[in-house]
């Protein structure tokens, strides 16, 4: 288990991370979320042991993270960290040796992942000759080539098309099934909802919301009703508990305070004609994120 307990980090007089605590179990995908400047990258660097904490402590399997355990960690930075004049093979060997792997094991794992990402033919190509998307794949491969017990991914889907995002997610799920602890950050809340179980949202270095995604959604209470049919927007707004009504393409999206409002909306809809759709959904994580971050800035 990874434990971050009451961690605070200053840069001079500026408090970048403020009494942050969370834990991540084996085989769990954890989202570290927040707007730019929230303290996510600083937190990653403290977990990696690249920055010292000013207060609190960080442990992996009840041990302080130092050079004795970093061979079990994989880290993919948001910025490109590849040596572009090296070939893919040379880059993999370089990173693998830094993680204490033998060259034989590195090449075995490299072939496996290159095949998995459908880019085996690029093994002896220089990094600078690859597209941005394929460079992103190589960066991901170098982060997981040591089969890490803890994997940290900072904006891993940046610059990827939907097909490759799905491929990345499949690999992340595979690593999760092996028991890896996976922490990632992204600005795309829809990506979080695809496979993230637990999360923390940071603002100005503080945690403003944390827990399991399913519990966060349940506690938020607000819901959406998707309607397709001949309905009157003004009549819907008159129903007590309806927060807003929006037209999205061919549908009407009705935001409600909680599930107790569903029956009243349905009673109105049942009197309307040509109803093709009536779907009740929990609020999206994007809605919750915007609401909670907005609340924190108002305090």
Can you offer a commentary on this structure?
Helix content is 35%, strand content 31%. With 299 residues, the protein is an alpha/beta fold. The protein has 2 domains: 2-217, Rossmann fold; 223-282, Alpha-Beta Plaits, CATH 3.30.70. Strand 9 and strand 10 form a beta hairpin. Helix 2 crosses helix 3 and helix 2 packs parallel to helix 4.
Secondary structure: elements and pairs:
Layout: E1 2-11, E2 14-24, E3 29-34, H1 40-48, E4 55-60, E5 63-64, E6 73-76, H2 88-98, H3 103-116, H4 132-144, E7 150-154, H5 162-177, E8 181-185, H6 189-195, E9 198-203, E10 206-212, H7 213-220, E11 223-230, H8 233-237, E12 242-248, E13 251-256, H9 262-269, E14 273-282, H10 285-298
Parallel strand pairs: 3-8, 3-9, 6-7, 7-8
Antiparallel strand pairs: 1-2, 1-4, 4-5, 9-10, 11-13, 11-14, 12-13
In short:
This protein is 35% helix and 31% strand. The chain is an alpha/beta fold.
């Amino acid at each position: 288990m990874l434990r971050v307990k009451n961690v605070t980090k200053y840069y001079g007089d500026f408090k970048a991370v403020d009494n942050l605590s969370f834990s991540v179990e084996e085989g769990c995908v954890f989202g570290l979320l927040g707007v730019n400047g929230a303290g996510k990258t600083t937190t990653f660097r403290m977990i990696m042991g690249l920055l010292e904490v000013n207060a609190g402590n960080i442990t992996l399997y009840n041990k302080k993270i130092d050079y004795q355990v970093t061979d079990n960690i994989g880290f993919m930075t948001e910025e490109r960290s590849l040596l572009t004049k090296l070939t893919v093979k040379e880059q993999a060997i370089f990173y693998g040796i830094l993680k204490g792997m033998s060259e034989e094991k590195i090449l075995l794992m490299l072939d496996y992942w290159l095949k998995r990402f459908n880019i085996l033919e690029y093994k002896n190509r220089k990094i600078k000759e690859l597209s941005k998307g394929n460079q992103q794949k190589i960066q991901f491969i170098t982060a997981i080539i040591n089969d890490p017990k803890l994997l940290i991914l900072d904006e891993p889907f940046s610059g990827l098309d939907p097909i490759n995002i799905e491929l990345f997610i499949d690999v992340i799920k595979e690593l999760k099934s092996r028991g890896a602890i996976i922490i990632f950050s992204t600005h795309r809340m829809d990506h979080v909802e695809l496979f993230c179980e637990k999360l923390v949202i940071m603002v100005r270095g503080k945690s403003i919301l944390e827990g399991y995604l399913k519990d966060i959604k349940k506690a938020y209470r607000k819901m959406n009703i998707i309607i397709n049919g001949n309905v009157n927007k003004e009549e819907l707004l008159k129903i007590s508990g309806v927060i807003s009504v929006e037209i999205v393409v061919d549908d009407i999206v009705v935001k409600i305070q909680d599930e107790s409002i569903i029956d009243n909306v349905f009673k109105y809809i049942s009197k309307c004609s040509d109803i093709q759709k009536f779907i009740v959904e929990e609020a999206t994580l994007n809605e919750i994120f915007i609401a909670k971050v907005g609340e924190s800035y108002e305090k």
